[in-house]
Amino acid sequence: MKVAKFGGSSVASATQFRKVAHIINSDVERRIIVVSAPGKRFKDDIKITDILIQLAQAVMAGKTCDEIVQAVVKRYAEIAKELELPADEFLAELKNDLHRKMNEYRDNPSRLLDAIKASGEDHNARLMALYLQEIGLEASYVSPREAGIVVTDEPGNAQILPESYEKLYHLRNRRGVLVIPGFFGYSPEGNIVTFPRGGSDITGSIVAAGVKADVYENFTDVDSIYCVNPSIVENPRQLREITYREMRELSYSGFSVFHDEALEPVYKAGIPVCVKNTNNPAAPGTWIVAKRNHLDEPIAGIASDTGFCSINISKYLMNREIGFGRKLLQILEDEGISYEHAPSGIDNMSVILRANQLKEGKEQRILARIQAELKVDEVHIEHGLALIMVVGEGMERAVGMAAKATTALAQANINLEMINQGSSEVSMMFGVKEEAVVDAVRALYQAYFQEAVVGNEV
Amino acid sequence: MKVAKFGGSSVASATQFRKVAHIINSDVERRIIVVSAPGKRFKDDIKITDILIQLAQAVMAGKTCDEIVQAVVKRYAEIAKELELPADEFLAELKNDLHRKMNEYRDNPSRLLDAIKASGEDHNARLMALYLQEIGLEASYVSPREAGIVVTDEPGNAQILPESYEKLYHLRNRRGVLVIPGFFGYSPEGNIVTFPRGGSDITGSIVAAGVKADVYENFTDVDSIYCVNPSIVENPRQLREITYREMRELSYSGFSVFHDEALEPVYKAGIPVCVKNTNNPAAPGTWIVAKRNHLDEPIAGIASDTGFCSINISKYLMNREIGFGRKLLQILEDEGISYEHAPSGIDNMSVILRANQLKEGKEQRILARIQAELKVDEVHIEHGLALIMVVGEGMERAVGMAAKATTALAQANINLEMINQGSSEVSMMFGVKEEAVVDAVRALYQAYFQEAVVGNEV
Lengths: 458, 458
Fold this sequence. Notes:
Order of helices and strands of chain A: EHEHHHHEHHEEEHEEHHEEEHEEHEHEEH
Shape of chain A: globular
Number of strands of chain A: 16
Strand order of the largest sheet of chain A: 3-4-2-1-7-9-10-8
Distance between the termini of chain A: 25 Å
CATH superfamily of the largest domain in chain A: Acetylglutamate kinase-like
Number of domains of chain A: 2
CATH architecture of the largest domain in chain A: 3-Layer(aba) Sandwich
Oligomer: homodimer
Largest interface: A-B, 63 and 64 residues
């Protein structure tokens, strides 16, 4: 059986609902459907989720909310009307549900926000089930509570509890198509709690792992995952296949297709993921798998991200001092700083971290502590760093991978602030100044994907 | 003024004594001389220091020592005789001194070893002073106690105490040539304590820093420092100039010319070092300086060392876990392990360390602790690693340095286990399998020194 998740743009309008129904209809294995809330229909459209956030904020601010509630109801009503659904009861219940939550959580902002946001997915799943029934499918809405999605009780940051998987497995015994809203679960105390970033993807992944699906299909609005950010390289190569590890390393820095936490349940259960396009379901999409069949292309992709900084420390005879690195990392931990990498030389050590953690004097305090507690010769911070990851399962076996990258960067006249290769078997990391990152990624793309023999290509 | 230190081979025989005298005579600025014990005169010769170690061991074992004492006396007697010195008194005092120490420290092995070893340098300094006087120089032997070399009381591992420098400064006021034995100082309690590796170099460096010399001359038996180990590359390029930082990074891995601890006092005092050849004093030698004048050659040298291993750890979502790296380093610190580098990827971290630290089940214990305490997905250890350092002050400013190295290694078909660039401004580090290290160093030498424009060359 397959679990198919449809993202916001895939369920944004009646037209999209029809495409989804067609996709479900065309494969009897698609028995469990996870849906997002209606997303954008056009570039400047507003997502239902964003309207719902406005609603929650209005409640908290004690403002009148009728107009916002109307805007929410209108979006669903339009879809229902165009699909010619008998939706009066559905729309009345939607309105009641919003008002009920607005009252119940009026004095509890974080609960209110979670409950109101979650209703976007919840009612869309109900509407989808209604539509599928209307066109003659045996379909039913299944709430996350009924499905067994039990999560920790931390608003906006739900983590799945292990007992969920056993409960979810029983969904296999249900007849027909099951439609489950994404993005939230219920805590053991019975509260609605939303997942962090990538919410509906997480639901889909958890459900796929729970029911031991053969495939987790993730329907979105692109034909495939690209090997590089299409806003940096025009019409980049499409990936036919990528491994979990490759996806994880790429999603770390700028590949927003699939968030880490969404990948974990299927990765651990060994269930392949297929990323497909709702608007072009005939395209083969991109498979995320444990082991690639096509290894002729050692590099899977190139990702990049900006906003890093580097704390650079030097101290004569540093490497003789047992415990130096540990003490440095302890200072960062005390200050609540999560670091990315800590490469060291003989008398030098650098710590690379996301600069947005250094607010409100924290930078000065950390530098002062390093100076005072570690008695270093010099410490300074370098801002404006970008990290580039070149990722591929074939990298470890291929001689000359690093040479190709560094030569391409040198030819593009890009100075390398950092190279980190060898700690991961599937990636190399390069640090460059932020202003050089676009040129650097283009140079690497050129070297790995345009000069290479055509291999892992659709 | 100059402080000139003469190594073991420079003071091994009467012929060498004459060369030293000639060198001292040829420059009035050479006012303080530091001497080693007589070293090897030919390939299979034995150093005085090694005979003295045998002597100490014989005393500890309760064996008869007369023959060994005779062997020591004979070496000095031969030098004295060939130099036509009236040395009866000197030789009698040498013999008395050895017997006095053998008796005094009979029941204290580490003190005995230090005292006996130190007498090699001590009596050579006395003999050198005698010879310089004999040829008409105003010269005097100055003991480390008289000079003011006060050290910590740890046998075989003396560390200079800061009050020494002020005392040493007064040597500037003494007339004539002062001859000081290298390798040892006196603890505040009055014990003879020897320095760790590079002993006489340390004395020379401390004295140069104390008297605020203009130059610290280090006389040895090569014309210069080479840019790469001559046992790996035949007739490698000689270095005219190198910075303290470059020297430090090179000496870390295989450059035995100048030990770290010997460089520290002159580095901190900003005193330039000139490494010269006693057997060819006309050669310009190699200058070790704070700032190179010749930066046309960005790379100063290539060093390598074997005997490393890498603990490789992977754990899904490792980089989300605040404190992971710190906890790992804490385990190593608990086990008394000093690590070299700890590069990390997204879900991976490696720790590179010298394998000789992992004796007696420590390897298994550390792996088990990492597994149990950090709940990692996988941990394993990779033995047989070599590290190669490419070192140069010009590296940071030059685009393409890494490309040159990685391309050369790829062309030599060498797989890179690790690249670490960016933490140090003056070096890049490469990890390769031990069996590939010679080919790798040769390939790098070829790339940086044989294809490059001739620059930093004698």
